[in-house]
Amino acid sequence: MTFKVDHVWIDDDALAEPLTGEIVGKLPHARVLVGKEVVEARRSLDLLPDPQARGKRIVRLMKHKGAFAKPCPGTPEYVCCGLKILHIGQGCPMDCRYCALQAYFNRPVMEVFVNIDEMFHSLRRFLSLNPSGFHRICTGEFTDSLALDPLTGLSGRLLDFFAAVENASIEIKTKTDLIEPLLRTECRGRVVISFSVNAPTISRTEERGAAPLLARIRAAARARKMGYLVGFHFDPIIPLPGRQEEYGETIDEIFRLIDPAGVAWISMGVLRFVPQLKEVVTARFGPLRYFHDAFLPGLDGKSRLDATRRIGVYRLLAEKIRRHAPDARLYLCMESPSVWAAALGMPMRSDEELSAYLDEAVQ
Ligand code: SF4
Predict the structure, then answer these.
(1) In Å, what is the CA distance from 151 to each residue of 2, 64, 136, 162, 299?
(2) From atom 7 of ligand 1, which residue's Cα is the shortest distance away?
(3) Which end of the chain is more exposed for a tag (fewer CB within 10 A), N or C?
(4) Residue 358: what pLDDT?
């Protein structure tokens, strides 16, 4: 799969970065805009009926000014997994209809941070500030880890970096099957290549532009064959009537192709969203049935389904996964200790406990 980029916007202070030249060189047919041209293009983009859709073919090359590595913004009300984010850019060429990013950023184009020497410097500093702790780091929080990798070549550089680091792991999380560069690199260090997966019908209808579900699972199997640990994220689970059972088909396919010992973790999270997302999604795609389910305000202000329903869904998936992999390292994304106990039969009382449970998979 490849993603089409037809415009490149370059910030003035990003012009001299070597990665800017590399990316422009890989896009000979794209129109390149700089300085005032970018300001004007941005104004015109905002006047379009759906700037987000158009923005998925525009890459903005820019320098990131803040910290590159930081803790994932958890919520005190729920048990958080202690993941750290390596901020490589934001936005994504795929267009999942439920994508939470639609409500978070008012910049519709895909932003790539080209000051990667500073990124690695910031990462080194972050790790050295807490040398005795272990850090699970992921690049796929505000973007897809691999979607723009053919342009940036970042995944190979990350693997080189993490091969020499003792106290951290890197999770490369994707809805693509663009794993070739990773397969060409010998698996060293603590690396998890993880795939967001869903029920087949939901994947087909809602995950627009993503690799087909089977292609993702096959990519995971290939990565596993090359010695990588793999992970799966069932998130967001969308409990539409008649669709819940379909999650079992995805689980069967995963374990038909991948040995349970190669799976570092499997996360589950039922759809939850900030209220603005529903407005953005409705404006872009019309009313989507699953956004009009019986959502209630959660403790963190996000709309959530009632805990009893969430528990029922988690149990269904967990039972199916445990039939294939009794020792699977399952975890829930942003749920309370009581939901953990009822859904998975596991005590999970604190962020530290969950962090340690997941660290074990990669340490
Ligand atoms: S792949 Fe992830 S970041 Fe990209 S549109 Fe889908 S949900 Fe959003």
Answers:
(1) 10, 18, 25, 21, 40
(2) 99
(3) C
(4) 97
- Alpha-carbon gap, residue 42 to 22, rounded angstroms: 23
Burial zone of 118 (CB within 10 Å; 0-12 exposed, 13-18 middle, 19+ buried): middle
Q: With CA atoms as reference, report the closest residue to 158 among 125, 112, 189.
A: 189
pTM confidence score? 0.96
Would you say how long the chain is, in residues? 363
What are the chain's domains?
Answer: 63-362 (3.80.30.30)
Nearest CA to ligand 1 atom 6: 96
**How far away, in angstroms, is 92 Cα from ligand 1 center?**
6
Interatomic CA distance for residues 145 and 140, integer angstroms: 5
**Among the listed residues 92, 88, 82, 83, the one whose alpha carbon sits nearest the alpha carbon of residue 67:** 88
Provide the residue type at 17 as one letter: E
Omega of the bond leading into 181 within 30 degrees of 0 (cis): no
Rounded distance from Cα 227 to ligand 1 centre (Å): 26
Confidence of residue 191 (pLDDT cuts 50, 70, 90): very high
Q: Whose CA is nearest to atom 8 of ligand 1?
A: 99
Q: How distant, in Å, are the alpha carbons of 48, 144, 229, 311, 344 from that of 252?
A: 43, 25, 19, 21, 19
Confidence at residue 184, expressed as pLDDT on a 0 to 100 scale = 86
329 in Cβ contact with 361 (< 8 Å): yes
- Phi first, then psi, for residue 322 (nearest 5°) are -70, -20
Which is it for strands 263-270 and 207-208: parallel, antiparallel or unpaired?
unpaired
Among 52, 99, 194, 280, the mutation site with the greatest number of ligand 1 atoms within 8 A of its Cβ is 99
